[in-house]
Amino acid sequence: MFWNLTFYAIVVTLAVGIRLGTYIVYEGTQVVVTQFGRIIEPATTEPGIYFLVPFAQQANFLEKRIETWKGYVDYVPTRDRQYVAVETIAHWQITDPILYLETLGNRKLAESRLDSILIGAVKDQVSKHALVDTVRNSNRIINQSRENAAAVDAGVPQLDAMNKRLQNKTASTLETVTVGREHLTRKMYAAAESELAELGIDLLGIYIIRLNYEPEVEKRVYQRMRSERERIAELLMSFGRSERERVLGQINKDSNEILSPAIREAEQIKGEADQFALNTYIASFGKDPEFYKFWRSMQAYRKSLPEGTEVITSTDSSFYQILFDGPEADGPLNIPLPAESTGPSDTENQAAVDD
What we know:
Oligomer: single chain
Largest sheet: 3 strands, antiparallel
Helix content: 55-70%
CATH class of the largest domain: Alpha Beta
Mean pLDDT: 77
Structural class: alpha+beta
């Protein structure tokens, strides 16, 4: 029984000694060994199992992978006195673990120094430049608008010209970029990189990911955007109205070109038909003047009496005689005629054609 307890005690002691006297370096980590708080050997960066003196030495594990820092700067005044809140992101890596451990000591202090250095660089560069340099990267839109203006002056199709004019309209109100967002972030990187290098940290890059305007500035920006959209909408409507008038004018022109020959030909045919009808009437009425007089009387009654009129007359009236006895009835024909004429007029002939 005693030997069993001794054996188990020895096994447990060896296990604890091995556990306290070794450390494992994993992928993505690096270890700095200290003895009573003093660094005694270079950092271990290769994965594997390593030994140390228990209780006297300590393994300090550090990240070897690239890490991400996010920062938010609350309402910094730009050079043109526009207040903006800037959200940035940076990538960094511990490249000198011994220097990192000597200057910072622990993760919490390292994050605090990162915040102070990077936020200070962001504030410093944003306050030295205009708002447009923080928002835009280049003058590409302005330069393109100038090229479009030259193309419009040189003569391009109407729809393409309209699109280019819209681009020019948008770019006309833009401010000119002097530095640009990309160069601004490079200046932030240059300002922070040297300070972080003294802490054993390699700054890989810093970027602006979001800008928030102060409420008053945001209101002015949205108002300017709204006004710009309204101007573009008015330009589009004006272009649409001009296109409508152009299309209608072209339609009228085309219709006149199509209808004019047809109308001219129709009038010519109609004139020839009227002439033929007139000659026919003259020849016909000239053979029987009494019938012509009777026909004109019928036309006069027809035109003078409304439709649906009922006429009540006696057999002695001239109207009855002319209707039922014919033009050769005894007694005078006292029938009112529209006008005395020796032959049919063009209007009467036309009325006869219509009947």
